[in-house]
Amino acid sequence: MSPSDESSGLRAGLRGLTTRGRSFLAAGLTAVACSYLLDQSALLHVGILLAALPLAAALLLAGTRYRVASGRRLSPHRAVAGQEARVHLRIDNVSRVPTGLLLLEDKVPYVLGPRPRFVLDRVEPRGHHEVSYRVRSDLRGRYPLGPLQLRLADPFGMCELGRSFSAYDVLTVVPQVQQLPHVRLSGEWIGQGESRARTLALAGDDDVILREYRPGDDLRRVHWKSTARYGELMVRREEQPQKARAAVLLDTREIGHRGSGPASSFEWAVGCAASVAGHLLQRGYQTRLLTDLGHCVPGPEAGGGNTAADASGLILDALAVVDLSDGAGLSRAEDPLRASGEGLLVAVLGDLDEEQTARLARLRTRTGGAVAFLLDTGTWAGLRMIAPDTGGEEFQARVRQLREAGWTVLPVRAGDSVPELWQAVDRADSPSPYREEAGA
């Protein structure tokens, strides 16, 4: 080590002196000064000892050349809002000398809790230590964890030097997904509803229904005429149930929602969209999420090869970060819905005006089935708490207009349960707290 390296290391060590180290250094220098003023040699020895201890600790830490690696693992990688996730940290000593006292501190956003701190006494050469801590958030989102900060300290607590790693991980907090009951859905055609349509699985552009024989194929499916023609075994393709399609439309317009924080109508809508999308994926629907801005998840680039688990992950990741938009209407979502052809449409809607209701009513004719969760956002703002069993006249008019167009409308009040509302989807005359009594 060159003299310049030693001086720079000493300066770094002095900057890392703790309150105890600075106190010892100040006491030592004072004792040395007093020994000259009072002509006390014993006091001089005490002063030198007090001042030398923090200086030696600073020089020792500044010259330390530990090689330490770190790793972080999240369990689970996607956490549900309101539930805990565990973060596992691993510290590896890749040098040939043992470490001294190590202080670990992981950088964590305040919404996940306080910053975790750990003390490791010693890590053997080529050894490692593992620690873990828990995080929890009631708010969905994507939160960075890290980088990990490492502080070296001497055994007497005189000096601390900080080191920081650059790597960090991201914890995704997704909305809660509720289990929905299995109900009959209009337009269901995956081989288990009222209208069963089956089709042959096609391959290529020439409407070919034959393929080469593969080990394990049933010999009863061999097409002998084509086998003689092509000179190799050819088998007929099996019938496959046609894939049902579904779209979940989420209204993110700021003007369409009331309330703030986790208790707002928008957060209820996000949780409802997550539950419905997850339920449809479990039932075998090829499901995608749409917003009023026209955003689609999974996007067209994903194609139709995504598994239900992949599509569910993409949708939950999108819902974890979706935010209120400044849009005024739902027109930008109409083109993707028209392009998708027939299928099931489930819309989670905020406040609607007459024009938006009319456009949704016309859109019904292009779908195989349509279900609307229509939020009475006035109940989230406390505007109809005196008579909670009746919605406003304008809201009731929107419900009637959509129902007359063929929508299955589920009026929603603050505090309503998504599974209970979903249970009414297959009822021709679904009970509703907004239904007008006969003769009223």
Question: What can you tell me about this protein's structure?
Answer:
- By secondary structure, this protein is of the alpha/beta class.
- It is built from 10 helices and 20 strands.
- The strands form 6 sheets. The chain has a 6-stranded mixed sheet with strand order 17-16-15-18-19-20, with helices on both faces.
- Helix 5 links the parallel strand 15 (245-250) and strand 16.
- The longest helix has 22 residues, at 41-62.
- The protein is elongated, with a radius of gyration of 34 Å.
Secondary-structure map with pairings?
Blueprint: H1 3-15, H2 19-38, H3 41-62, E1 68-75, E2 78-80, E3 84-93, E4 101-106, E5 117-120, E6 128-136, E7 141-145, E8 148-153, E9 160-164, E10 169-174, E11 198-200, E12 210-212, H4 224-230, E13 234-236, E14 239-241, E15 245-250, H5 265-282, E16 286-291, E17 296-297, H6 308-321, H7 334-339, E18 344-349, H8 354-363, E19 369-375, H9 393-404, E20 408-412, H10 418-423
Parallel strand pairs: 2-10, 15-16, 15-18, 18-19, 19-20
Antiparallel strand pairs: 1-3, 3-6, 4-5, 4-8, 7-10, 8-9, 11-14, 12-13, 16-17
Helix pairs in contact: 1-3, 2-3, 5-6, 8-9
